[in-house]
C-alpha cells in the first residue's frame, strides 16, 4: 500500500499523472487509496487532479468505499459530490454495504438521502440484508423507508428465523398474508369444473418450520386463518406444519418426487409452463437442494416472462453446482431477458468455459457480447 510520502514523491518529483492506471491490474492511484482506506492519500490525490467520479465496470469509488466499510472515506466522497445512488450491475452503494453488513456505512448513506428502494432490477438492499441475515442493516433500511412489502421480505425473514427482523417488518406494516414467491395457480379440469390449486406458504408457516415459537407468536395476531389448519392457534399451526413435514418424510417420498418431476416434464413438453413450474415447486419443497429442478423451474419462469424469478432460481442453482455449465447458462439467459448484458456476458463466459462444445451456450454468449 503506497503511503502519502510515496504519492508525493511520484507526483511532485516523478511527475506521475494521477489519472493513469497501473499496468498490473489497471487501477488508478486513487482506486488503490480508496481500497486500502488511506484517506490522507485520497485527499492529496484529489487536490492534485484525481477524478473522483471515475468508474470501473460500473462501480464508482463510493461503491468501493462502501463494500470495504470505509466510513470516513464514504463521508469524504459524499462531501465532494459523489452520487449516493450511483447504480452499478451490483446495485447501489447501499446495496453493497448491506451485502457486507456494514451498518455504519448504511447510516451515513441514508443520512445523505440514499434511496433504499433502488436496485439493479434483480434485488434491492433489503433483499441482500435479509439473505445475509444482517438484522441491524434490515432495521436501518426499514427506518430509512424501504418498501416492506416488496418481494415478500417477511417470508424471507421467517424462513431465516430472524426474530428481530420479523418484529421490525411487522411493526413497519409488512403484510403477513402474502404467500411466498413460489405461489402459482394450477388449473385442472375435472367433470367440467375448473379447479384452482394454490401452492406456496405464508410467513407464519415458514416460521413454524424454520424459526421459533416466538416467530409464530409474533405473526399470529396479524395472519388471517388458513382454511387447511383445523386448529387456528399457535400450537395448531406448529402441529399442522410438523404433520406436513412428516408426510413428506414417509416411505413414499421417492415415488412422490419421481411423480412430480415426471408431471413437470410432461407439462413442459406441452408448453404448459405454468403447471410445470407448479410441479417443480412442489418437488423442490421436498428437496430444495435439487439443482436440476431449480434449473427446470428457472426455464419455465423465463418462458413465462418472469425474468427476475428465473434469475433467482438460476443463481441458487450455480451455488449448489458451481461447475455445472447449464446452471450458468440459465443465469445468463435470465440476465439477457432483463437486459443486464454485462452480467449476462460474465455468466455465459463461465458456462462456455465449462462446456465449450455447447452450440446453445455459444450462440447466446455471442449475443451477449454484441449487446454489452
UniProtKB/TrEMBL annotation:
<dbReference type="Pfam" id="PF12796">
    <property type="entry name" value="Ank_2"/>
</dbReference>
<dbReference type="InterPro" id="IPR002110">
    <property type="entry name" value="Ankyrin_rpt"/>
</dbReference>
<dbReference type="InterPro" id="IPR011990">
    <property type="entry name" value="TPR-like_helical_dom_sf"/>
</dbReference>
<dbReference type="Pfam" id="PF25575">
    <property type="entry name" value="TPR_BSK1_C"/>
</dbReference>
<protein>
    <submittedName>
        <fullName>Ankyrin-1</fullName>
    </submittedName>
</protein>
<feature type="domain" description="Serine/threonine-protein kinase BSK1-like TPR repeats">
    <location>
        <begin position="254"/>
        <end position="329"/>
    </location>
</feature>
<dbReference type="InterPro" id="IPR058209">
    <property type="entry name" value="TPR_BSK1_C"/>
</dbReference>
<dbReference type="InterPro" id="IPR051616">
    <property type="entry name" value="Cul2-RING_E3_ligase_SR"/>
</dbReference>
<dbReference type="InterPro" id="IPR019734">
    <property type="entry name" value="TPR_rpt"/>
</dbReference>
<dbReference type="InterPro" id="IPR036770">
    <property type="entry name" value="Ankyrin_rpt-contain_sf"/>
</dbReference>
